[in-house]
Design brief:
12 helices, mainly alpha, 259 residues, single chain
Amino acid sequence: MDAAVEIILLLGAGLIAGAINSLAGGGSFIAFPALLLAGVPPVLANATNTFAAWPDYISGAVGFWPEIRKNRRQLVPYILAALVGGFLGAELLLRVSDAQFSIVVPWLMGVAVLLFAVGGRINKWIGSRAKKSGRSGGLVGVILLLLLTFICLYGGFFNAGLGIILLAFFALAGFSNIHAMNGMKLLLSAVVATIAVVRFALSGSIAWYEGSLVFAGALVGGYVAARLAKFIPENVLRISIIIYGTVLTMVFFWQAYGG
């Protein structure tokens, strides 16, 4: 691919991904395929996509910090679970070949698209469930921590859809404030992405040049979208992302199993 075309592709993908993440989530559906199209091998593209998404989680968690700190008692065990799960997920990714990962990608994309499509219903269920639930201790708490570790393992391996799964987890854990739940979701996503990016960087598994272009585009796209959010119908955006993600998943299935 011509160098100028590659720069335009990756910066443009970052702009769109950052804007989508700011407005509705689902930016990985744009950034990950763009990295593949730029010639980044599948495993490196996935690791690089996590690096490119990292600033969105950090800035979001900072913005929600007043809500996050209201749950100080849960921070240490949850962060430890996110660190362990994120590291194990990153380690698992580094132990699969590009060919193996290419076979798994269509299924992961399909799950991510499904989670994105039903995210609104899950959020409604979260709201009603959270009002009725209370936090439990003892054995239930241990089971919840193990479940959170497994969820964060998924996030370290393949980042798309992690936020929706984390929201559902917090509902099960008995959280009652949706803003605190969103803040905790972003905090744990940031922890998972941070430990994963560190592991990927130490193993030389991040395409820094391509990832930095997406990273820079995402920063600009997220800021611009936040300023223009009131002018963009969210439903139109979500439907477009679902259609795009579904088509993309079908393409990945065809590439992996069609011939």
